[in-house]
Design goal:
A two-stranded antiparallel sheet has the order 1-2. It is an all-alpha fold. About 14% of the residues have low confidence. 66% of the residues lie in helices and 2% in strands. Helix 1 packs across helix 7, helix 4 runs antiparallel to helix 5 and helix 5 packs antiparallel against helix 7. The termini are far apart. The chain folds into two domains: 143 residues, no CATH class; 35 residues. It contains eight helices and two strands; from the N terminus they run ααββαααααα.
């Protein structure tokens, strides 16, 4: 069975070889492709939308809570997101969909690093849930085929500019502190 026909049958709720019905809305099922779909969906849900505020439809996960830890919080959540992308790549995601996923993680990481604003942003921007949706559309609809080099080049350019601005800002701050001291 080809990968795309597997996903088409999986999303229609066809019964798999073990008798479980599979849908994207129910990641708790066992799939014939292995446990990786279930694991990806579980991790994404845990990080982005596992918990619900009682009496509302607002959902959140561990990502915004871990992100509250200064410095290491966003690094840790970005590492989990990148590990999820790596798993998706090992199981057939195209370069284009991987680049889009990396862009989601980059947006989440960069804006999430801004004090207060980033913490609020982490509660509403769910990069991992978005990435699972990208993967679903990639397999279901054949969307986002190709290498994704254009997206990767744009992400690289943004990272280069951000890194340069960070170094420049750090040099200005250190220079100003040295002027105050000496």
């Amino acid at each position: 069975m080809s990968t795309s026909s597997f996903w088409n049958e999986f999303n229609r709720g066809k019964t798999n070889a073990r008798g479980a019905r599979g849908t994207w809305d129910n990641p708790e099922v066992v799939t014939p492709a292995g446990d990786w779909v279930r694991q990806i969906s579980r991790w994404a849900r845990l990080m982005d939308s596992r918990y619900q505020v009682p009496g509302t439809n607002f959902r959140f996960g561990l990502d915004p809570l871990i992100g509250l830890i200064p410095g290491v919080g966003n690094l840790a959540t970005s590492a989990v997101s990148l590990a999820l992308i790596g798993t998706m790549l090992r199981h057939g995601a195209s370069g284009n969909v991987a680049a889009r996923m990396a862009l989601n993680v980059l947006i989440d990481g960069l804006i999430g690093a801004i004090p207060v604003v980033g913490n609020v942003f982490d509660f509403v921007y769910r990069a991992n849930d978005r990435n699972v949706e990208l993967l679903r559309r990639h397999y279901d609809e054949g969307a986002y085929q190709g290498s994704g080099w254009g997206i990767l080049a744009a992400v690289g350019a943004v990272l280069f500019v951000v890194a340069g601005a960070t170094v420049w800002l750090a040099a200005k701050i250190i220079g100003g502190l040295l002027d105050l001291i000496f």
